[in-house]
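Hi everyone, sorry if this is the wrong subforum. Our group has a chain we'd like a structural model of before ordering constructs, and none of us has done structure prediction before. Sequence below.
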Amino acid sequence: MDVSFIIPHKGREEMLLKTLRSIQGLHYDLARVEILLISQNEGNSRELDELVNELSVKLIRITDGRTISALRNLGVEGAQGQYLAFLDADVKLSANWLEVMLTTLRRPNTVLAAAHQVNSSEAPSLERIRTALSNAVLDCAVTFLPGRNLCLSRHDFERIGGFPEHLITCEDYYFTERASRLGELYYTSEACYVHLGEDKEYTKMFRKEIWRGQSNLASIKGRTIPLREWPSFIVPIGLLILLGIASVGTIFGQWLIALWSLMLFSLPVVVYSLRLKRLVGASVPLTSVFKFYGLFFPARALGTLSGALKEVKTSSHNE
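Answer:
Right subforum, don't worry. Here is the predicted structure as tokens:
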């Protein structure tokens, strides 16, 4: 067996069906490929059952609420492939995806490969922003790769030590940092994928970013933090503090303090927004870019604080 596709799944089937069909459409001999679906759903629709049978998918059903890392590691235990391809259950691969991944992994000192993201048809501004951020650098070695589409050898996966099962989110930061200790992470434009589940509405994005931020601090433990990551921890918390100071200043009539706090709050939002505007070009209006960071930073701060409080409670309980 050449390659094992490992796909954790929970909830929406319509996107999973598109993911599986994109694997079915790969320019590769599917007899040399296996698909392991680790599902947290209690059952399947008839359409999914038919496709699972058609592709000879190995279905592993888990209903005990394990983390996505635990599901991926469980999939590896049942996999037979020389190479492991980790996919989220909401991505649509280009037909050349697997060929390009295997070719990329033959580069000297390359440990991990991933394809670049492309927009869906009629993508709204928020999706275009997310895609542009994902593709800030291409066709080079990078310091981080998102966990939506990853490919590496089984040997290197075992050397990395698997995915961190203690993390609810941010597991891809932890995993890819460990991989970077062994060799290069390569992000290529030769193949692509559509993130079907990409954020498209700002309200939902705000809630998701709170959830995503809950493992920010926990993900630091056991890995080296590159300099470029530090702002993602410091800026959101700093901005939330400034908003709090501005609110208190307004309540007590300290207008100068409130004004300075709001000005300091605006500074990183403006700087990050201008950088992002260069990435998205004319496809996204500047107002949408400002709206993105105006929501992103506070949400990440709330998520980080929520995760820190949960960790304190857990530590206290264990004592």
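For your construct planning: Residues 227-318 form one domain. Strands lie at 3-9, 33-39, 58-61, 83-87, 91-93, 110-118, 140-142, 149-153, 184-195.
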